[in-house]
């Protein structure tokens, strides 16, 4: 399965998994569920993973590693950022470790690519990255996948070319997921505050540490954007500004992705109290919405740390 989605903060998507289940408010307008359900007739790639029922698209709960998609990145020569599983979750509770091992094996075999992994299940991710047997299992999987039998050794763990992130659409999920992410060994830690459903405090000094040499784990990259979908919540300009300013204060990289379904009308100042009904927005639907925040593009990327 390959989801044909345009995402400005990545160069390509790689979907070695199919299937998922909803986890939190950010899943409310899951495009993967809709795209999979649209391709769910017998013989199509989405068959068995989602259905188109009277209440709309719905995951079936089946989730699987697709072996025919697994090794695709090994044929990609150009150094690029690759978003892993745009249409699923690598740390889904139903996925066996053996499947995660094989995805990590491919990422280890492609050090020239940067893999952006995003999950709504950071507890599973933490347990996996701390599993003392994961490394040897991944190396075994490398031996099964690599055409060169010498490529079965990982020299650096966590993998320097793998960025690990969590979705933080509201404060409740930020409070729940970010502390788990910060305990997880990773070269780069990032959050996707997309869809951004309310103002977020990313705790400058704790989660966002000031200065590049601040000790201890911290968030390196903040991606944010508005919600898209039939009942999408308009994203208040002040929510976006707050993230921009927290990143500026701490030095974290900030990427403002898009406004979502509703774009604030030009010249309208945000109400300091985030109250959607008081704002004026124009509805643009699923079309790529403008990426300017107060007239400026914010498209920063982090640097990997060893
Ligand atoms: S975790 Fe991602 S793919 Fe899975 S249901 Fe939620 S939004 Fe969709």
In short:
24% of the residues lie in helices and 19% in strands. The chain is an alpha/beta fold. Helix 6 links the parallel strand 8 (162-167) and strand 9 (188-193).
Report on this model:
This protein has 306 residues and is of the alpha/beta class. The chain has one domain. Helices cover 24% and strands 19% of the residues. It contains seven helices and 15 strands. It has helices at residues 31-38, 67-70, 97-109, 122-130, 134-145, 171-183, 237-250, and strands at 12-14, 17-18, 50-53, 56-59, 64-65, 81-84, 114-119, 162-167, 188-193, 221-225, 253-258, 262-264, 281-283, 292-293, 296-297. Strands 1-6-7-8-9-10-11 form a seven-stranded parallel β-sheet. The chain has a two-stranded antiparallel sheet with strand order 2-5. Strand 14 and strand 15 form a beta hairpin. It is globular.
List the helices and strands and how they pair.
Elements: E1 12-14, E2 17-18, H1 31-38, E3 50-53, E4 56-59, E5 64-65, H2 67-70, E6 81-84, H3 97-109, E7 114-119, H4 122-130, H5 134-145, E8 162-167, H6 171-183, E9 188-193, E10 221-225, H7 237-250, E11 253-258, E12 262-264, E13 281-283, E14 292-293, E15 296-297
Parallel strand pairs: 1-6, 6-7, 7-8, 8-9, 9-10, 10-11
Antiparallel strand pairs: 2-5, 3-4, 12-13, 14-15
Helix pairs in contact: 3-5, 4-6
The structure holds iron/sulfur cluster.
| Cα-based radius of gyration, to the nearest Å | 19 Å
Query: On the 0-100 scale, what is the average pLDDT?
Result: 91
- Major sheet description: 7 strands, parallel
Number of domains: 1
Proportion of strand residues:
15-25%
**Based on DSSP secondary structure assignment, what is the total number of beta strands?**
15
N-end to C-end Cα span = 33 Å
Strand order of the largest sheet: 1-6-7-8-9-10-11
**Helix proportion:** 10-25%
Structural class: alpha/beta
Bound molecules: iron/sulfur cluster
**How many DSSP H or I helices?**
7
């Amino acid at each position: 399965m390959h989801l044909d989605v345009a995402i400005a903060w990545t160069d390509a998507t790689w979907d070695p998994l199919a299937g998922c289940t909803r986890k939190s408010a950010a899943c409310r307008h899951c495009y993967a569920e809709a795209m999979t359900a649209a391709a769910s007739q017998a013989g199509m790639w989405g068959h068995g993973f989602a259905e188109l029922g009277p209440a709309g698209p719905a995951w079936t709960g089946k989730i699987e590693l697709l072996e025919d998609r697994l090794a695709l990145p090994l044929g990609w020569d150009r150094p690029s950022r690759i978003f892993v599983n745009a249409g699923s979750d690598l740390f889904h509770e139903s996925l066996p470790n053996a499947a995660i091992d094989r995805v990590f094996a491919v990422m280890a075999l492609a050090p020239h690519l940067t893999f952006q992994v995003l999950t709504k299940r950071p507890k599973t991710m933490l347990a996996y990255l701390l599993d003392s047997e994961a490394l040897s299992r991944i190396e075994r999987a490398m031996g099964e996948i690599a055409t060169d039998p010498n490529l079965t050794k990982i020299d650096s763990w966590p993998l320097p070319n793998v960025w690990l992130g969590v979705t933080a659409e509201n404060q409740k999920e930020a409070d729940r997921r970010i502390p788990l992410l910060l305990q997880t060994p990773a070269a780069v830690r990032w959050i996707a505050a997309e869809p951004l459903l309310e103002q977020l405090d990313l705790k400058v000094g704790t989660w966002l540490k000031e200065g590049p040499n601040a000790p201890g784990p911290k968030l390196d990259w903040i991606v944010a954007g508005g919600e898209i979908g039939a009942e999408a919540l308009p994203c208040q300009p002040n929510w976006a500004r707050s993230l921009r300013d927290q990143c500026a204060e701490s030095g974290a990289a900030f990427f403002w992705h898009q406004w979502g379904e509703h774009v604030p009308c030009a010249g309208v100042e945000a109400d300091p109290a985030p109250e959607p009904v008081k704002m004026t927005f124009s509805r643009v639907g699923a079309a790529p919405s403008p990426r300017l925040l107060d007239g400026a593009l914010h498209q920063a990327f982090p640097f990997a740390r060893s």
